[in-house]
Amino acid sequence: MLIKKTSRPKIFAIGNVLVGGAGKTPTTICLINSLKSIDVKVAVITRGYKSFIEKYKKKPAIVDLENALNFSYKEYGDEPCLIAETGVPVCVGNRAESYSKITSQFPEIDVILLDDGLQQQSLFPDKKILVIDERLFGNGFLLPYGPLRETLPLDYDVDATVFNNINEKINVNDCFKRLGLKKNIPFGYLEKKSLMWKNIINSEIGSEELKQKISLNYITTKIKPLAVAGIAVPNRFFMLLKKLEIDFEPLWLENHDTNFIDNLSYYLNSSERIVLMTEKDGVKLVYSKNANSLNKEQFWIVKLNLQLGSNFVSSINNWI
Q1: Whole-prediction pTM value?
Q2: Which CATH superfamily is domain 10-192+307-317 in?
Q3: Using one digit for the tens of pLDDT, what is the confidence trace for 25-79?
Q4: What CATH number was assigned to the domain covering residues 194-305?
Q5: What gap in Å lies between CA 206 and CA 211, rounded to an integer?
């Protein structure tokens, strides 16, 4: 597919109406991979929630994974580091300043994905993508009495919708009506294509082999694996493990926990205990000097290979 270069990169905002955990980051990664497959040059702008750049109001910076490896993920934030593993430029900081940095430093960029970009007013996106998860609209109340970030129906248009962790039996028209959306906008589902487990030292195994390791580990330690979830919806990870018939002890940690390693170490009562974690939590382990004292062979990170349906991807490609 031949992409015609425009005078400026198009901006696609990705966001949600619920607080945290809807699936913006996996949607962003799926879109990056889809656009890269048709030779579209992609970059990402994100504020870097709970990063040092946000906390200390630093100038925007392009995520440098080598720097994060030698220093800490905390400079950029956990999700920006995870997105940067796709190989595209990810700029963290003030959105307007980040746009200037991206366009001046990477003039070849065709599309900028604006993470958590629906409620912001610094940039004007060409298209808006709404991500909805299994919670739909919760109890229908705004924070702090419910999970909604803004009132419904929405007072702006959305150009596409992604459903995450929702089966295809959902009544899409009812959902769109509640949101005040047009009925004919594209929608798609985040689908699990495959699942693997990756060790920090880069060995990769399937779930059956992992369960064998857990069984052998239990014989010697008599301790169940520790399942760690420092994410917005921890139960989603725990339910995945139950579906895989893995017996575990759950550990809830704060979403975007900046003291993740210290808090995790507090609960590790054995240097041989197997620890299972999400990709986002894995970032905190990989890009952290504090993790050097841990036995990295005991940690296994789930690698979900997600994809968006081909019809939805085609609709997005037509925007370019």
Answers
A1: 0.91
A2: P-loop containing nucleotide triphosphate hydrolases (3.40.50.300)
A3: 999 999 999 999 999 999 999 999 889 999 999 999 999 998 777 777 889 999 9
A4: 3.40.50
A5: 9
